[in-house]
Amino acid sequence: IEECDFDSGDTIALDSPSDTLAISRSTIRAGIMAFSGGELQISNVMLIGSISAPNATGTIRFSTLVTSGPGVNPSDPRVIKCGPSLTVRDSIIWAGGPAEVPVGGGCVVANSIAGPTAVLGALSADPQFVSFSDFHLSTNSPARDLAASGPDVDFEGDPRPNGSAFDIGADEID
Predict the structure, then answer these.
(1) Would you call the peptide bond into 161 cis, given omega within 30 degrees of 0 as the criterion?
(2) Which of 63, 99, 110, 145 is most buried (most C-beta within 10 Å)?
(3) Cα–Cα dist 101/168, whole Å
């Protein structure tokens, strides 16, 4: 899936361990599930929903993963449930609600911002979105200039970097 605006109440699912889901430069308003495994390759994606991929492999990078509102059980991960074979890097993972857990299951998180509850390997800071319905970064965002290298464009096709380094998450601040 590339350069797509997917808006659905449905879930994108990987049905078998041999499935691969590659998404780039897209906005996805849906959930992603990979219960039986499979490979996720997600880059430059604005995901408003959640990911449940406890057995998946792969990488999520330069993406913004967000949910809104409180979950049913505050101790359950609200944005992504993943295992140790999945890496999330140079991304923003943000759950709605003041005490929500954004990540669970043991995936590797590196050079990212996650919250509002702290996540090992991530900066625990408000990413300062324009609003909680517009997940572009404000000019004062701590996500600015945090990666030494990255893709040439952001999820909307805006050039990267636009500063001394690459902004993490799906959006490069103009």
Answers:
(1) yes
(2) 63
(3) 20
Give the type of residue at 50: S
* Selection from 123, 69, 116 nearest residue 96 by Cα: 69
* Residue closest to 102 by CA, chosen among 147, 43, 60, 139: 60
Q: Are 114 and 94 in contact (CB under 8 A)?
A: yes
Question: Is the pLDDT score of 50 beyond 70?
Answer: yes
Q: Which residue has the tokens 């970064």?
A: 137
Q: How far apart are CA 84 and CA 86, in angstroms?
A: 6
Evaluate the omega torsion of the peptide bond into residue 84 and state whether it is cis, within 30 degrees of 0: no
- Taken as a whole, the chain contains a residue count of 174
Q: What is the pLDDT of residues 22-40, one digit of tens each?
A: 999 999 998 999 988 999 9
**Which pLDDT value is given to residue 132?**
82
Per DSSP, 115 falls in state E
The dihedral sign for the CA sequence 132, 134, 137, 139: negative
Question: Phi then psi for 137, rounded to 5 degrees?
Answer: -85, 140
State both tokens at 59.
């990488």
Query: Which pTM value belongs to this model?
Result: 0.94
Q: State the DSSP string of 118-145.
A: --TTEE-S---BS-SS--SBPTT-TTTT
